[in-house]
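Quick question about two entries, pasted in order.
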Amino acid sequence: MQIVDTLNLLNTEVTFSHVKGHQDDSIDPEDLPWHAQLNIRCDTIATETLATVDHDPIVPFLPASALSLTIQSTTITHHVPSQIRRLYASMNQRPYLTKHHEWSSPALFDQVHWDVVRPALLSFSFAKKKRLTEWINRILPLQVQQFRFLKSSSSRCPSQCGADETYHHFLRCPHPARTTHLLTLTSDLKVLAAKHRLDPSLTRILFSFLCQYTGETPLPPPTKDAHLKLFQSQLALGPDSLIYGLFHTDWVSLQHEYLGLRKLPRSKNQAFLCIRSLVVSIFHSWFHLWLLRNSHLHGTSVTNLHSYRRLQLLREIRDLYDSAPSMLRHDRDIFRHEYDSFLDVPERALKSFIQFATPVVNRSKKQASTLGPNCRAITDYFHSVPPELPPHVVAAILGSSGRCMPDPSQQEPD
């Protein structure tokens, strides 16, 4: 808008042309036209600059915009409704998390890379996202809390280790199955670190936090100034902060610098995607650790309807069924069986249905938001049944004698 106003003030002739973005996703940049290569270069420079410079939260006022919205010394430039909701929620969330995570200052809230946590949470189903949110906010129904509110007869860990089940103990329970699960998480993170070319110094910080759960020898802190500062800042967020997904904001910037130093691709948010994949893997592993804990509390029998794992699967299927009205009409056939038919099937069948139905529901909801839920499929227009002719019309065609038309298949060959 401001560019257009400036060009009008210059009173000069300017030609405009649309250059399609992201053409290098499928074509070698050297094979693209010159204007497309310039567009790619501009995107690369902008991405690298945004990832490395300090951001001024106050955006200079542009006269052409005629209006500017600033909240808490931050200019809102896009997604105004969601940004307002997010800032309003942070006013209550900041003191709450400061208290429950025992942070020394509310300013630590702003050092968490919430833009990594948010999409990581959104990648899970509603049931998982709800439980992960309870974990981050430390409102899980652990045995200590249940016992305090007279909801449980004991405050002891369900894995029969004899200790009270606190948040600190939850991650450090010596039960062999739980320790093995955390060792598997360590192995999975090593694979992700290698896949995304994670900075070795960041890898060292990551596993120095994880070794406290697996009994491995603690790693010494990093030696580089920037990484040592990150290590100390991450420790200020709590010794368990990485398992909560509360990664410090410097993780992304340091990974971006490392990719540039190694001359590796970094123009498409590779550093951000790397850290987000670590958070998703940690959340996924934590959720299964929670299910393992619940199996010790409730049992693992397939026929046990009170099994937490089974209840979670049934809840996910119920959420899928509830999504049917917002799907395309012809896609609702996947719910032709009643929901109650799932109550007696094995857990493996529940998982298979969820894996099949989830992508169908997501795609159908997205299409229905554009086309409308009651739109007809294109195949509906090619299966019309011709109207039946009245008897007198048939008689007129065949003759008054009512003779039948000869069947070509019954005729004798010449």
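Here is the second entry:
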Amino acid sequence: MTALPSSQTQSLTQTSQKPTKAKFPCLRCKKNVAKNSKSVKCNICQNWVHVECEGMPAEFYNLLANQEKYGMSGVYWNCAACQTSAAKITEMMGQYENRVKEVEDRMTAGEAEIKQMGKEVKKVVESLHDRDDKIDQKLQKAEKCIYEELKQRDTRRANAIMHGVAEIGGENPTGGERRDWDRKECLAILEALRMGLDDRDIKFTRRLGDKPHGPRPLCVGFYSDADRDRLLRRARDLDKTKFKEVSICADLTWKQRTEEADMAKEAARRNEKELTEEDKTKNLHWAAVGAKGQKRLVKTAARPQQEPRTRQSDWSGRDRNPPRNNRSPRRTNDQEEQRRGLRRARSENSQERVNSPPSKK
């Protein structure tokens, strides 16, 4: 560690009490080093630090600032990071010097050892070239995988997957008959959810995978990703329609499904090992929340368990709403359409009576 000469003292200790913009931030507190503040500059990285922030003794600071007074020169100060780096570089240089010395000793020992060393060096160079080639290949493969993943996500952005949609019956239906059936079923689901979409809004329908015991998932592509997002938001209303067995989710890539599965495992691991007593008292737990394809791992309050529904025999009749089984059955789509038609007819009749002139008595 060396101290600066007095000619450099003015650059080390600046004097100004007027706060300025953080042009020379302190390495410790990040605040601006004013001209009149007690501060020193690192001889290697040329960054400033407050003496108080660095915890530098006043005697050492005075020695740096007044080297000529004490008959010294060439004393510099280096920050901790630069000292660590310098020590590592010095150590590495020492290692390299030792290796060079060993090489020189071997060279002086005889030509045979020199030739053997040349062969070893050649092998090392070849192995480095091979390693560079492998690294380049892996990088190219990774870039290709990322490009394909982004391409797949962009392609599936306007797609939705419908589970539990019945497939066409009969023996050996044609491909056109299957497509027409799937399109018809999809439109029926959209109508039940009151999406306001028709056949022109659907880009394609396609069954996924081999046919198992149940119906295969139905992939539906829309021309607009906004229509797909609106369908996903309304999918929870399927329980109120005749399509209770149908579920709808986003069309995710294999990478997205794997990430969500890993996220669920990580949440379970954290809940088992990382929850504190305070978290348990507050009923907090780790969970993967968000829509499919957009899930994130957060610590949130656990949902309380739902109480069992009241049985019909336990209902006393004093509640405002009776149980579901005692309510009047929901109107079907045909009944609802008839009801709307009657309303329109009554409205037209009343409008005609208002607009017609009064009859003469």
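Reply: The domain at 159-251 is CATH 3.30.70.330 (Alpha-Beta Plaits). Strands lie at 39-41, 48-50, 159-163, 202-207, 218-222, 247-250, 284-289, 296-301. Hope that helps.
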